[in-house]
Amino acid sequence: MAADAEQRPAFIGAVNTLAQGRLVPVPGGVLIRDGDARIIGAVGISGDTSDIDELCAVAGVEAAGLQADNGL
C-alpha cells in the first residue's frame, strides 16, 4: 500500500477521505487469516520503523498459529 501511495497519491488521498482519515499507507499492520484463509481480524504495530513493525506483527500472528497477510 505504501508503494501505491507513492505512485497514485490522489487515489490514496481519496480513499483516506472515504475512510475518514483512518488510512495509514505504511507497513506495520497485517490481516489475520485462519486455516481456511478467511480474514478473522487484523493487527497493527507501531514503535519502530514501519518495516520492523510489520515483521513483529507477522511474528505475533504466526506465533498464535494463524496466517499473517501483509498484502504482498
TrEMBL record:
Per its UniProt record, what Pfam families does this chain match? HbpS-like
Q: What is this protein called?
A: Heme-binding protein
